[in-house]
Amino acid sequence: MNAATQPKAKPTLWSRARAMAEQAPPERNRYVDFLRAFSILAVVVGHWLVAAPWMKDGAVEGGHLLGIIPWTQWLTWGFQVMPVFFLVGGFSNGLSWAATRRDGGRFAAWYAARIRRLIDPVLPLLLVWTVITLFGTAMGIDRGIVKMAAQLALVPVWFLAVYLFVTAATPWTHAAWRRYGLASFFALVAGAVAVDVAALAFDIPYVNFLNFAFVWLAVHQLGYAWRDGAFAAPARALLWSAAGFAALALLIGLGPYPVAMIGVPGAELSNSMPPTLALLALGVAQTGLVLALEGPGRRLLGNLRLWTAVVLLNGMIMTVYLWHLTAFVLVMVAAWLLGGVGLHAAPGSAEWWLARPVWFALYILLLLPFIPLFARYEQGGKAVDDDVSHVRLLFGMLMICIGLAMTAAISIASPEGVTGVRLWVVALPFAGAALVGFGPAARLLMRRAGA
User: Fold this and answer.
1) Which of 5, 29, 145, 410 counts the highest number of beta carbons within 10 A?
2) What residues are paired with 60 via a beta bridge?
3) Cβ-based neighbour number of residue 128 at 10 Å
4) Helix axes of 158-168 and 390-410: crossing angle, nearest 10 degrees
5) Contacts (Cβ under 8 Å, ≥6 apart) of 233
6) Phi/psi of residue 262, nearest 5 degrees
7) Residue of 98, 97, 129, 128 lying closest to 111 (CA atoms)
8) Half-sphere exposure (Cβ direction) of 44: Cα atoms closer than 13 Å
9) Terminus-to-terminus CA distance in the chain, angstroms?
10) What is the largest CA-CA distance in the chain?
């Protein structure tokens, strides 16, 4: 067989990513893609680090590193980087929406495509954990354990519900940015201040949930500012960062806000659920810091190998985010079944810290098989129905968001009933996706379910 008749080698993930990297237009801001991947990976590492189960008196006890070792709460200033993700979202949504308006596109088609891009990777995760919960209940495993496992594995979906709401507001927030500039950001900051005063000073119940809108919309607004060059000067970006850190230090030192930027078991106040003014200050600080480094970062990303790595990561980053805690749960279950191997070191001890690289290697090893199986579902695709009505879009979005929020808040596992599954929670995202118009993953899953 000569060279001309030999079959061509199957392209590898790297070669495909390299081909995509080479096709990227020169005007593309590669730093946006880098920050998207970086922020998600930081969250993954943070989750793997703070979850600290261990064997105590012959039973597995759930541990939370921030509650066990208080000094580690300072680490959340680096690992709580969801503000960076919303910053990137503002940049990308502003760019995409401006292009849609310029080309005469409709909001419904634009938003439907963005919903599908986000919900498509989630549906396989929900389906897999519904099956696990059903089998766990049928096998007689304690329902509390099943619920704990399902809720831990599925808690990452919470931010998608918030992000969908923030993205839905893009036409109005972008218009406000074009008309009022940074005043539109400071108006949202004022809203966050008012909410925290009402909640913390006057004990008005539930009003603090409004900060899911004010805080994340404010950070999203900074993404528009970034795209329009407001942080082009590194000195100005560093000034914003310094102001953010100064505000954060004052809020923690003189105010009621805790050091940790995520919830700590037993703490009276959480800075993230719902978000507070302190988390917004951290978001401003992180925005200024990462954008002060944009120039050097973009120059480094001119290296084809590094840029290819970023492209490769972005092609699977939602899969890594959505499945990383499933890998964690599987490792913990395996350790428990093996008699608690590796779980006898008390969290925070020298032995525990020295074992972290081994545990992280195991998490990565268990995560790797999920990537080729499920990364295809985050590739997106053309909208099935470009004429989706605003009514269908609204109700579809609400059903998806409520379903995802309930999945993270109360779990799909039920302490009652024959199935052990809150079927209505599972059904909501699928029904919402059906209203909007199924993307590739949803259609494939429905066909398999029907089979």
Assistant:
1) 29
2) 55
3) 16
4) 150
5) none
6) -130, 170
7) 97
8) 22
9) 43
10) 82
Dihedral angle sign, alpha carbons of residues 16, 125, 115, 288: negative
> What is the distance between the alpha carbons of residues 34 and 355, in angstroms, rounded to a whole number?
29
CA angle, 359 as apex, 354 and 360 as ends, to 5°? 105
Query: Of 226, 190, 181, 183, nearest to 211 (Cα)?
Result: 190
Question: What is the pLDDT of the chain when averaged over all its residues?
Answer: 88
- Token pair in block for residue 2: 């000569």
| Strands 59-61 and 54-56, sheet pairing | antiparallel
Q: How far apart are CA 79 and CA 46, in angstroms?
A: 6
Report the share of the chain in percent with pLDDT over 90: 60
pLDDT tens digits, one per residue of 308-351: 999 999 989 999 999 999 999 999 888 888 888 888 888 888 88
Residue tagged 């690289």 (tokens): 357
Tokens found for residue 439: 């993307």
Write the pLDDT tens digit of every residue in 121-170: 999 999 999 999 999 888 888 888 888 889 889 988 988 999 999 999 99
* Identity of the amino acid at 388: V
pTM of the predicted model as reported, rounded to 2 decimal places: 0.90
Cα–Cα distance between 46 and 354 in angstroms, integer? 17
Structure tokens at 389: 């009505």
pLDDT the model gives residue 397: 92
